[in-house]
Amino acid sequence: MTEAALTWHRLPSRVLLLRVLEVIKSFAIPLVLLFVVNNDWESTFGIILRVGILLFLGLDVLQKFFGWLNFRYALDEKTVYIIDGNWIKKEKSLPLYKIQSVHSNSPFLYRLLGVVELTFDTNANSDDASFKLAGVFPNEAKRLEDILDQVRHRKTETDIPVEGETDGTVAPVAIEKPSSRLLYALSTREIIIASLTSLSVFAIFPVASTIISSIDDFINLDGTFDTIGDWVVHASIIAIGVLVLAVLILSIVIGMVINFLKYGNFRLERRGDRIRVEKGLLNRSAKEIPYEKIQAVRVKETFIRRWFNIVGVELVAAGTMDELKNESSTILPFVKRERAMNVLDEHFDQFVWSDTLYRLPKRSLWVKLLRISWVGLIVSGVVLYFFRDYAWWLILLWAIIIAGRLLSYMTTRYARNGRFIELRTGAFNVTSFLTDKPRIEQIQVTQTPLQRRFNVCNVLFSTRGVLSNEMIEDIPKQEADAMLKWFSRYTIEEDMKTPG
Q1: pLDDT tens digits for 118-137?
Q2: Which residues are CB-contacts of 395 (< 8 A; sequence separation ≥ 6)?
Q3: DSSP character at residue 271
Q4: Are the C-beta atoms of residues 158 and 318 closer than 8 Å to each other?
Q5: Are 313 and 341 in contact (CB under 8 A)?
Q6: How far apart (Å, rounded) are the C-alpha atoms in residues 75 and 417?
Q7: CA distances from 336 to 184, 191, 307, 312 (A)
Q8: Residue 331 burial by CB count (10 A; 0-12/13-18/19+): exposed, middle or buried?
Q9: Looking at the whole model, is its pTM more than 0.70?
Q10: Among the listed residues 484, 496, 455, the one whose alpha carbon sits nearest the alpha carbon of residue 360
Q11: What b/e readout covers 95-107, taking b as 16+ CB neighbours within 10 angstroms?
Q12: Of the four, 49, 384, 392, 466, which is 20 to 30 A from 479 by CA?
């Protein structure tokens, strides 16, 4: 690497402030305990402990300083170069054409200081598959994204032969930034409805528990709890009802605030050959998924939201980094089923949904009911042996287990539509899964002794890239054999293509 021929850039100096604040945050609890709550400088052990904490803090700050000082990056027309390292410098280079997507993240403190974190992902599985610029100015972030868009455009143009050119020359192409097309934006009404139909209404309880636990570390609250308990015992039904109502309203408000902070200004866009998801109020994030990396589509329905016909949509993408996979895969967190299917049919037409799904035969229900529930047996044994007075609760436990198996039988569906396979599985929460033959890595059929007696089996589908497994249980054996035959035989030339 020739440093003189490149223009090198450093991260802004305010990034150093961010890193120092992160170090102080990680040491906040021991610093408060040792220097505020129990500020004991008389014992030798206390002095050694405090000096040791200060030395570790100073060493960590010094390491962050050298990490910021040594970090530099530069770009030419084809490659990005990086110099990194705290005590030992490391140099690496990455071809720009290998960068598949750019993810931006702007936590509240980053936005307060006017910087953005960029993550460049090659969608490979190696340790050097990605790199971060942990704090650049927005105009610099835009410049880098524009450069990558130009590289992608050039690669696309050079891959397409120009008619009439036989001498190998390539005509110059005017490079334009891909236009952005809005596919979906969450409304305030949708976020409110989603908050009311999710478990976020109970967010007050873990929040209150955390606050009380933190206060109890410094102030003994046992007397306060005893006072509250006496009040509840002697209070009237009306007073308790008002208290419960107030707690419920407060929990709903907290749940709404959490959802607004997480999903506020949610936008699903298409930019060229990739999908972009932006969301968040305080912590703003933007993730990208290349179209060619999409392996499957999942539509999720929770038990409560099924009554309101609200679903969530995820994309299974090959090679996505583990730390970004969950965040970037959700393209529609909670929308009406009709609107979600309209978006999928219009903008993800590479996947075709079946009009008719097939149910399991009745013998599959017997298999589900006769299958041993180890959780139920273990819990029943513990309760009957140690807590016999509460044995009647086991009726509710087994009712839930049986109801779950009945719902699983009723909701499970499957279909093969040309080169597509569609599964609908689950009990209380239901998931619809759609992929096609070229994107399936393998199909595995398993059969237990109980299933063998009823001539049913389980079928596991694994998609390409970072394996994503989807299983359908207690399907007829002849249908499983037909799926294996369907997967192993390629009847048309298109089936031999491997997307992504």
Answers
A1: 888 775 555 555 677 888 88
A2: none
A3: E
A4: no
A5: no
A6: 47
A7: 12, 12, 11, 9
A8: buried
A9: yes
A10: 455
A11: ebeebbbbbbbbb
A12: 466
